[in-house]
């Protein structure tokens, strides 16, 4: 893991303008592309009129790829036309965290696991609400969803079943969850107890699943779901 520290010295009196414009137009876009913002600061003592921000990356290649994606956005270029005239000097340095640093590899891995667990919560909540748009936002375009019956869905066919009401999820309870992250890919395994209506028939399902998320353009999206029905004697009724 590396951390980039970017220090911008602005023209006197321009810090407030920078912060206002950046917060309104740049913050979400930059976080979306670059990933993990460690911190964003303005100077109070010593060298004044400075903005200092730190970004964590897996390595220099990860930094290059993410920054290229940001620079390629027309809206980012439009924002630069507003911000660059405020800048007098720009400096950048790459920092390597010590093993015990709270921004080290272990901390970064913990943050990613927390983020993925939250995304899984969002996915399940959206499925129960029947929020097709909310589910679609979390799915990769090349999604392959394999049900415990061995039937397979693509992203379009899965969303169509939700929209038409062919499949309705009434309750989803995840347990025994394990998240393993390897670079841009995360593998999640666990047990899902579900109550669903499929083709008008209510079913109570208990499946062991494997779920794969990939990071695309700085965002995690689910690309694979594979579930296997547990033996009937190992099933339990979920709350109704």
**Treating each run of at least 4 consecutive H or I residues as one helix, how many helices?**
6
Total number of beta strands:
10
Share in helix = 25-40%
Low-confidence stretches: none
What's the mean pLDDT score? 90
Q: What is the chains' assembly state?
A: single chain
Task: Give the H and E element order.
Answer: EHEEHHEHHEEHEEEE
How many strands, what sense, and barrel or not for the largest sheet?
Answer: 6 strands, mixed
Radius of gyration in whole Å, from Cα? 22 Å
Q: Span from first to last CA?
A: 46 Å
Q: Give the strand line-up of the largest sheet.
A: 6-5-10-9-8-7
Q: What is the strand content?
A: 35-45%
> Which structural class do you get from the secondary structure elements?
alpha+beta
Shape: elongated
Description:
The protein is of the alpha+beta class. It is 35% helix and 42% strand. It has helices at residues 15-34, 60-71, 74-83, 105-129, 132-138, 155-164, and strands at residues 2-10, 36-42, 50-57, 87-95, 139-146, 152-154, 167-182, 185-198, 201-216, 219-229. Strands 6-5-10-9-8-7 form a 6-stranded mixed sheet. A 4-stranded antiparallel sheet has the order 2-3-1-4. Strand 7 and strand 8 (185-198) form a beta hairpin.
Structural topology:
Blueprint: E1 2-10, H1 15-34, E2 36-42, E3 50-57, H2 60-71, H3 74-83, E4 87-95, H4 105-129, H5 132-138, E5 139-146, E6 152-154, H6 155-164, E7 167-182, E8 185-198, E9 201-216, E10 219-229
Parallel strand pairs: 5-10
Antiparallel strand pairs: 1-3, 1-4, 2-3, 5-6, 7-8, 8-9, 9-10
Helix pairs in contact: 1-2, 1-3, 4-5
